[in-house]
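Researcher: Let's try something more involved. This one mixes different molecule types, so please make sure each is placed in the same coordinate frame as the others.
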Amino acid sequence: MKSYVSPEYLIERDNDKCIRCKVCVNQCSYDTHYYDEEDDVLHSRNENCVNCQRCATFCPTQAITIRENPNHYRSNANWTQEVLTGIKKQAETGGVLLTGMGCDKPNLTYWDRLLLNASQVTNPSIDPLREPMELRTYLGSKPDKLDMDFSSGEAVLKTELSPQLRLETPIMFSAMSYGSVSLNVHKSLARAASEFGTFYNTGEGGLEKSLYKYGKNVIVQVASGRFGVHPDYLDAGAAIEIKIGQGAKPGIGGHLPGEKVSAEISKTRMIPMGTDALSPAPQHDIYSIEDLRQLIYALKEATDYTKPVFVKIAAVHNSAAIASGIVRAGADAVVLDGVRGGTGAAPRITRDNVGIPIEMALAAVDQRLRDEGIRNQASVIAAGGIKSSADVLKAIALGADACYIATAALVSLGCTVCQKCYTGKCPWGIATTDLWLTKRINPDIGAKRLVGLLRGWSLEIMEMMGGMGINAIESVRGNRLLLRGVGLTDTELKILGVRMVGE
Amino acid sequence: MKDLTKVNNPHGDEKVFDACSIFGMMNLKGERFSAKDPIRAMANMHDRGNGLGGGFAAYGIYPEYKDDYAFHIMFLDREAKKKMSRLISECFNIVNEEEMPTQEANVSDPPIMWRYFVQPKPSKMDGQTADDFVMEKVTRINTETGKAFVFSSGKNMGVFKGVGFPEDVAEYFCLEAYEGYMWTGHGRFPTNTPGWWGGAHPFSMLDWTVVHNGEISSYGINKRYLEMFGYKCTMQTDTEVMAYAFDLLMRRQGLPIDIVSKILAPPLWSEIKTMMPENELALRALRQTYGSLLMNGPFTIIVAHEGEMIGLTDRIKLRPLTAAEKDDFLFLSSEEAAIRLVSPVLDRVWSPRGGEPVIGRLESPVVDVTA
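Model: All components are placed in one shared frame. Result:
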């Protein structure tokens, strides 16, 4: 069948600049560029290009420019290029349209409509380069009061706190399974987390043996497929996360195609090589909140109550009530993943239409837990679409204890958010298990880049905190008076618990 | 002057911003002395206030009623007084009541001032302690009509406050006629309120009083944390969260002041790391558990209750506090000059470090953690 879908991008090559080095040919995993030996010239197959910018970045003479195809269908606010192209693709394949990364629509983000405060006159701002500025955060359940014994003259703690995770910055790396991303990406994340004093989440694909040594900075995930879950795995991590849902695809499971299940991945996931790794939509032993409680306590029993257990849900309409149930079921932390959260593969229709923005879910959950007097019993972690240090700080002011980032972490490794992760051919060597491509991530350099990101964001958070005259992150947490909204309706402000600018 | 909370904060700002002078003077043997020196000391720091609020708390002033709760109440009109008098006589046996002695002074628009010496009616108490019963009724009076405000409710102590400079408020209340063993004072410089009588310091509940100089940047979370424990922050001032934090931690949870000071103004993580293992464990648990009660931003407070006076600053000491001792007296003040005025020769004078409390207790030596 002749495809009616025209190329999205056009590749322009400046032949005067091109030195025929063929870097573009070698770098592109989509077979876009080819060399014509007879004419000594390079050509491109535009239809293959995903605009990942790998070739343009590595071209030594900057001879390549990629631009959007100017051949658009007639402009139409409703029947957009994306809509028309999607329909034609479906007509030709009869399938679900897949995509990668988080929702790319502009209408679902609130961070940019929230503004932070600063001190002027009535209280002094603090210079973080010269004064202490504390970002340390402990995740886990906290008691409402501490019992202490003073009989010896010294204060002796009687209450034993349940296990806590210590973060030197309130930013962790969110779940990305080994399989959806490469081992070198996991190595980079693990090393960066352990160097900076934070945590990386394994995702649902298990923990590769060589990474066990980073265990005290690892959160091990238990998801519906239970891939790679065994006693040593649970023991290896500092915390366990039960994955109920994911912001990019609430209510649906996952599918790692058999081609990606290499020998190494098969070993870590404990499934035969080359077989599809199917994660069911629900956890089949959790059909209700009491089932969740059983799994939480099964995992706590299995690890002798030495680790906090997190429960991760996608942000959906009734997140507040669900989160309350999760806390009452015994979770030490609730992870909320908003509608803009990323994925390695999801139906585009689900990614862009199911779930709610993290800002609203976070505000509603934090308030509900406070209304019920149980906010101290669990930490709240915000995830999904956190793209800057300001987003982190705003999330904390809304009520989060910490944030998970994943897309930003991958971007620091080279990702350009081309949204083609599901093809397994990531030219940047990130979302792939192809050994030829995964070599493109050097874990030493990767870890360095990730640490650079964490450090840069942490310094920015300190600057903003200092500007507000606050020198400990716990004084920002849930302190919504530090925020003002702009361009929001009364109802939006009410749910966010934030006043309008100028108020 | 309708709704008290609105009157307190007419622009609806989330909290009242102010800067201030504060002073405390205590005889550690419990010997009573007149208000003359505290008034002079406050007057000496005149320029730290702007005449929109001044007040004093005095302990040991009602020995003849020492077992009765002394209510100082301001009424905005006769109607409110009538209604609230009915409520008070319903719930309490009134030992004595009278208009508070006042005189002409340079204060603006004083409300009706009344005081009651009362005992809770046992038949009305529903298994509560007397303190909890009084606290509940005081909250009810303060929120019910919006025109009656109990600004003092402890035993053998009293708060005197209003709109004016502290020395003028003292004159208005004829304060020189009283004798107490412990006095605290406050002069106010609010930036966002015209000042109303109830909004002046000290703030009090039962015999706890707080005078406060500062702006708490962590107010938003301090308030939300306290709300989980049933406190209603109706006054929209950061001083109020300070008072409730003391009530929660000291009265309800029974923690001593040196621990409470480590919650409100905790040591840095880098300091905690260098402590002895047991202290490290305790201090870490305190920050983990009570992080939402860390009072961030500049503050100095003097908290007092029967037999005890405590001075504390924020952990990086962004507002001043000087302490001094002379014979049986402990002084706390925003400025040393105010102390020197009333006691030119001192045994010892020092600047407490940020977050280190200075504690004066009756019949006990001054505990100074910095020494």
